[in-house]
Amino acid sequence: MEYVAKEQEEFKQVLNNYFPNGQCQNLRILDICCGIAIEEPLLIQHFGENTELLSLDNDKSLEGLLKDLGRKSVIIGDIRELEKYTKGKFHLIIGRNVPLNPNHNYEEGKILDYWPEIFENLIKFMTNDATLFLTLVREDEFYRAEEILNDLGYRIKYRERNPIVVPSDYVGVRGADTTDHYVVLAQVPIQLRLF
Known about the structure:
The protein is of the alpha/beta class. The chain has helices at 2-18, 39-47, 63-68, 115-122, 139-151; strands at 28-32, 52-57, 74-76, 90-96, 103-105, 110-112, 126-136, 155-161, 182-187. It has a single domain (2-192), classed as 3-Layer(aba) Sandwich (Rossmann fold). The strands form 2 sheets. Strands 3-2-1-4-7-9-8 form a 7-stranded mixed sheet, sandwiched between helices.
């Protein structure tokens, strides 16, 4: 899978840019909306062999491919029910190409906007010095991430166009542009650092 290798090589550069080697070691990491979890081997390599990684995606159709790729950290499940899959807190939460737009429920004829609730819930799973690292595809999602995180009191450290072009494997979004165009790096809200 040549496209996975190319994506991994570029994402390795992103990690080196935002998390210089040796800066953080042996973290507990949550990878949300992970898809085929191309990040799994890179995160272990970058942050150390004792890194504890949990990757989560709700797409059951990826199960066979995840098994073929030997992904060990992935659980198929709903991020809105994170407490079902883990306990404790994470030092780093990563979300690559997180689809931040509201979802349309055509059966019930309404728009479901659960991202503010998800980011609020994630705070319960973050250590006091935790980092939330998001990459986003579109400009509207970039501004929406900033709005949601500001409303919740996250401290935004970086919000910028990604200086490193990371092509994507296109799994699940065939033909769509799923490049990591934007980056948001934020830390846990200061008023909630008491837990």
